[in-house]
Amino acid sequence: MNPTFCKVVLIYGIIDILAHILLMSFILMVFFPPITRYMQVFMEPSYNWTVFYALMYYFTYCQFFLCAYIAFIRFILIYFPFKGTNILMKSFWLFVVLLLITSYAPTWHLWFCKTYFGPIDKRYTNGYLIFAISYKKLEWMNVSNSKNSIIHYFIFLILSFILNLMSLVKLIFKNLFSSVGKKKSVKGNVNENTPDMSIYHICQKLRVYVYHLMCLLQPYTLILLSKSTKNILKSIIINSFKTRHQSKSYPTGELFYFANQIAKGIYIIIAL
């Protein structure tokens, strides 16, 4: 797997975890009565929660940038299979700088604002008294979180969509021509005298999509990517396969490859 892609997925996972913690703490947890009562203490504007409030938006902007960057990585690797790795490695730190700048630009004002917990209109809380975090603009500020968010999200979502669409078109045409060239050899492997290799060929075809779907991994599934966990899962699959097909003999290499593909598929299903 491409080293730059692995770095980005790792960074993306860490940012996802941090963003999730902040969103849980300041958006969802405030709906619990004990925490709501505690938040009433911070009704007066202060700088107590300014950093956390700014980071909550900052990490969200980082997520959208990284989503577009992963689409860019996929695009480069598909259209430039030989030079793509070098292009990504040379431009990696440039994109890190762009990540920091583009995520800071729409949130710069939040780092200077006081924050407070104000009551939400009871019409929207079914009559319950709920406090939500907000910020107080300084007099010289003429910015809006909503407008900044819409502009930022729209730009990077459009970029992601265009890059993914172009990558998908390339993959479809590539697989169509590849399928025409390999049609005869696939038919030759599946007959009455040999084991049914249809699953093997399906996994082989899906391998390309498996690599690209890896970007959909939720951050907490990064724990499952450890070698020890993968080896345990592969051994379970191989032993189960041997037990169910004792009358047939399969080369160890094919079993290992088959188990590896199933393990990747399980990882993706868990992530989705």
SSE blueprint:
Elements (H helix, E strand, L loop, with lengths): L2 H26 L4 H7 L10 H30 L4 H21 L9 E6 L11 E6 L8 H45 L8 H16 L13 H18 L7 H20 L1
Helix pairs in contact: 1-3, 3-4, 3-5, 6-8, 7-8
List keywords for this structure.
272 residues; mainly alpha; 2 domains; 8 helices; extended; disordered C terminus; Serpentine receptor class gamma; transmembrane; transmembrane helix
Can you walk through the features of this model?
With 272 residues, this protein is mainly α. The protein folds into 2 domains: 3-161, no CATH class; 190-271, no CATH class. Helices cover 67% and strands 4% of the residues. It is built from 8 helices and 2 strands; from the N terminus they run H-H-H-H-E-E-H-H-H-H. The chain has helices spanning 3-28, 33-39, 50-79, 84-104, 145-189, 198-213, 227-244, 252-271, and strands at 114-119, 131-136. It has a two-stranded antiparallel ribbon. Helix 1 (3-28) runs antiparallel to helix 3 and helix 3 packs parallel to helix 5 (145-189). It is extended. It starts with a helix and ends with a helix.
